[in-house]
Structures are given as C-alpha cells and as structure tokens.
Amino acid sequence: MRLHSSGRKQNPARLFSVTSQQQSRTLRCTHQRSFMRKWRMKFPEFDEKIGTYKAGPDENCPDVKNPIAGFAAMIEHLDNQVGELLDVLREEDIEDNTLVLFCSDNGAHREGGHSPEFWNSTGTLKGIKRDLYEGGIRSPLLARWVGTVAAGSTSDHISAFWDVLPTMAELTGQPCPPQSTGVSMLPTLVGNNGGQKEHEYLYW
Fold first, then answer.
1. Which of 2, 5, 6, 31 is nearest to 15 (CA)?
2. pLDDT digits (tens, 9 = 90+) for 93-129
3. C-alpha to C-alpha distance for 110 and 183, rounded to whole angstroms
C-alpha cells in the first residue's frame, strides 16, 4: 500500500490489474499496419481503440495483510499476465515475428515488507537492491522469439539496459545513436556467440 500525492491510499494490486486489462487489447491493435500508420511518430490516444478500464483486483485475489503472501500473489498475477500476453502473440500469429524480453531492473529489495531471505531471492549472491554487489545489480534476462531464439538455451554474456537500444537498432536495420555506449546482444540472442561484442567494463 502507498499514498498518492493527494493523501489517498493506493493499492498496487489494483493498479497492476489495470495494466493486465490493457496489455492484451493494446497488443491486438498496435501490431496492425493500419493502426501503426495512423499513429506513427505520434502519441497514441488509445481510448477509441482500446476502451476504458476500471481498476480492481481479480475476484480470487483478496487484500492480504501478510506482505509475504501479498508478494506471492503478485508473482502469480504477473505469471498469469505473461501467459496472457504470449497467448495473444500466438492467437494473432505474430509470435515468430516478436521478440519478448523479460527482466528486472535490480536485485531483490526489502520495500513493502518483502523478505529476500524468505524467498532466497539472490541465491548465493551477496547484497540486495542499492548495493553494488552482484546481488544488487545482477538480474536474469529471459528472451523468447519463436524460431529464432533457441528454446532452453543459456548464455553467460553480460548485458545492461543500455544494450537494448543498439540491439533493437541492429534488429530493425536502423543506425544506433553515436552517443550510445551500449552493445548489441543480438548475436547472443540468435546463437552467434562468436560474433558477440563484450563490454570492457560496466559502471553506474
């Protein structure tokens, strides 16, 4: 639970539910060429295409006082959301033309009563969020691209978030801004490990 600037309480589960309602309908619309032509280089106003949404938790997700139980419920809800998203890609027949990346922006945290120790969130790594140890800055990246990224494959290549831009630029055949210090991870994604450029160092 957190407070809005107005002083009202906000339930993260309710906010999360709105995102869940939007994602599938948005995806069904935005991959269509007619939709993209209309909004290219503009900020999309989704109301007439996507509809309106009412925030509210799922019926089977009641409010809980135990933060550990709440965390477990959020993970289950997120898992369901990802499944719904992948289902839409399959139904729209675009899963072999869509790269899905799933990751976290930092290591485990303690906010909201979360317990990294209870969940063994960092495994054998030292530190948590805001630490410069691996437990604070290292997180997994999952990639799914049917027919391109080999199912079950793994890599020890180290990337950072600023690598996403050059990766997408290479993937779409566009020039990467010269000021970018990122490294495209496309070679790793397609299994060309020998062609993968590495960072000399990473910094924060």
1. 2
2. 999 999 999 998 889 999 888 899 999 999 999 999 9
3. 31
